Amino acid sequence: MKVTKQDIIRNRVINVANYIIKNGCTVRGASKKFGCSKSTIQKDITERLKKIDYNLYGRVRKVTEKNIRERSFRGGESTKRLYQGIRYRK
User: Which of 47, 38, 13, 8 is nearest to 21 (CA)?
Assistant: First the structure.
């Protein structure tokens, strides 16, 4: 049996979706894990996954929506740490 490019993409999409659900990670975290760009992972979980497995898409969407809500807090915390580090160096 010959493995096609569509099969490879389909397997990646499902593996990425399961990884995001299991670990609650961000698109950036999944892209590092799977060695793909963030835009590829984003397209996988927003467009391709919806066509492959709609139930899995819904579960991934819950995780990504939670990450989007928390994004401003994460950015604020990292900026705070950055400036605290600079302050301590002086």
Answer: 13
DSSP 13-68: HHHHHHHHHHH---HHHHHHHHT--HHHHHHIIIIIHHHH-HHHHHHHHHHHHHHH
Structure tokens given for 51: 């066509």
Report pTM.
0.79
Residue 24 to residue 64: CA distance in whole angstroms: 8
What single-letter amino acid sits at 59? R
Q: Tens-digit pLDDT profile for the chain (90 aa)?
A: 899 999 999 999 999 999 999 999 999 999 999 999 999 999 999 999 999 999 999 999 999 999 888 877 766 777 777 777 766 555
Token reading at 39: 């835009």
Q: What's the CA gap between 48 and 74, in Å, rounded?
A: 28
